[in-house]
Design a protein that fits this description.
The protein is of the alpha+beta class and 505 residues long. It contains 20 helices and twelve strands.
Length: 505
């Protein structure tokens, strides 16, 4: 029977040049808009950016103050980063003096009810999106929803649903390494945790965190909920995955039943009283995805046409990068995902999934603690030792990718990761805490405000041609017209639309 390393080598040898060159990559990147003083901007989504309902590249996420930038699919990391840079230049030019907040954990926040929900107009499609966000606010609090992140969409020619689920299972087993290397949210503003139990310690003025933390965003303070804690969504195959999500969408949850669909004034509180309003509410570090038509349910698309790509959801914004993301990071994730694909991926068990969850939480809250132990195969292993073992297995994958793409970027990314494991002070989470401790301004908000201001200045100083300005202006204008057409089109009453969308009839 071949060893793990031998099997990896055999599987790697089977990959073709066209498969490696055909890897598809896209990014969805969320960022809050803040005032120049580091507090949340309460202004509407800039008109110059078009309609957030219908624009293909610029929208909003949970709140009106949270911009989401969406790239197209690229076969090269550098081309992807170039488009994401373009989108940042566009956004900064439309925002006036406001900043794009450079970190995942939010800027200074007002009271929960003051955070403005995203608005999408009067069409049924727009109202559905707004009511869904109203529900998120009732369920988890609006402050939690202002956390921002980066989603990396990845595909490879020749893969089917079973292959993507195998990648996802291994991804969850080894995602601790991504949390450790790229976690960049070890601290938060005091306004984020005001009035709630959090277990953090005071690190600086108006700043709370954990000295050994890597990514509070991916820990208990992030996208977690009691309702979803009881979910056991299996990644063993597509039918089981779909069945688990459908059950969650159909199962009432007492606390949400108490909120109700409508408030006493007849306005909508949420789309449903189930554990999940819709499938997008399921929080996970990775999701199997399929492109959908306008108005189509993601689960229906997956069930009918299978998995098209996977969405990596555990990457923090890097405040030290002007666009929140470095090409080096994406090159490393490409190697990581190929390792997930090439390694044996046995089915998950509930016990293994629970152990993976504990590993993620330990890494998020204490990943840089010397000697930190994680669970593996029923025993304990030191995080650093496990990381070093994985990085050694990545070497031939990085070399093969570099050979196929005519670069040395993947070997360089791997070398950077090895250096960070050997010297944790190089990690972005460590760099942030060191800067907070040494900086003259001495608070999380003022530190990220300073970096965000520098990023704004750097991006605005870059060339911006008349042709690019005209292209984006045209897209914005067309998106506004498209929203108007939706609102003028005859449609059923919203309640009938809601029930049909959720399949309640």
């Amino acid at each position: 029977m071949p060893t793990h390393q031998e099997q990896l080598a055999r599987n790697l040898a089977r990959l073709t040049q066209s498969q490696l060159q055909g890897i598809g990559r896209g990014v969805e990147k969320e960022s809050l808009r803040s005032r120049p003083d580091g507090s949340l901007a309460l202004t509407p989504h800039p008109t110059a950016l078009g309609s957030p309902l219908t624009h293909p590249s610029v929208t909003t996420d949970f709140c009106e103050s949270q911009v989401e930038l969406i790239t197209g699919v690229h076969h090269g990391v550098n081309e992807l980063v170039a488009e994401l840079t373009d989108l940042h230049q566009l956004t900064h030019r439309a925002m006036g003096e406001e900043l794009l907040w450079g970190a995942s954990m939010p800027c200074g926040l007002p009271t929960d009810e003051t955070i403005p929900l995203a608005r999408y107009g009067r069409s049924n499609e727009g109202r559905l999106k707004s009511v869904y966000r109203m529900g998120l606010g009732h369920r988890y609090g609006r402050r939690m929803q202002t956390i921002s992140g980066i989603h990396y969409n990845w595909s490879m020619p020749g893969l089917g649903s079973e292959d993507y689920f195998a990648i996802a299972r291994n991804f969850r087993r080894h995602a601790f390494l991504l949390l450790y290397l790229f976690g960049a949210s070890p601290a938060v503003c005091s306004s984020f945790v005001a009035g709630r139990r959090h277990g953090l310690v005071e690190l600086a003025r108006h700043t709370w965190g954990q000295p050994g933390a890597t990514t509070l965003r991916m820990g208990r303070l992030g996208y977690q909920s009691d309702a979803q804690a009881g979910l056991n969504i299996s990644y063993n195959d597509l039918p089981t995955y779909l069945r688990g999500l459908r059950e969650a969408i159909a199962t009432p949850y007492p606390a949400y039943e108490a909120v109700g669909i409508l408030n006493p004034g007849g306005e909508y509180n949420q789309l449903s009283t189930s554990v999940l309003q819709i499938e997008n509410e399921f929080y996970s570090s990775i999701r199997p995805k399929r492109s959908v038509a306008r108005g189509e349910r993601p689960l229906a698309a997956l069930g009918q046409r299978g998995v098209e790509y996977i969405e990596v959801r555990c990457i923090d914004l890097d405040p030290f990068e002007p666009i929140g993301l470095a090409a080096n990071t994406l090159h490393f994730i490409d190697v990581f995902l190929l390792h997930c694909m090439l390694s044996a991926s046995p089915p998950d068990t509930p016990a293994q999934v629970a152990a993976v969850g504990r590993n993620h939480e330990r890494t998020a809250s204490s990943g840089r603690t010397p000697g930190l132990l994680l669970e593996r195969d029923g025993g304990d292993v030191e995080l650093r030792s496990w990381a070093e073992k994985l990085l050694l297995e990545f070497e031939p994958i990085a070399d093969r990718l570099d050979q196929a793409l005519g670069t040395n970027a993947h070997a360089t990314a791997l070398a950077s990761a090895k250096a960070a494991v050997a010297s944790p002070e190089l990690l972005p989470s460590a760099r942030m805490l060191k800067a907070l401790g040494n900086g003259p301004e001495g608070s999380y908000v003022q530190f990220i405000r300073s970096l965000s201001t520098q990023a704004r200045q750097q991006l605005l100083a870059m060339p911006w041609t008349a042709e690019r300005a005209a292209r984006w202006h045209g897209l914005a204008e067309r998106s506004i017209v498209a929203q108007q057409l939706l609102e003028e089109t005859s449609s059923p009453p919203f309640e009938a639309y809601r029930r049909a969308y959720l399949g309640l009839d």
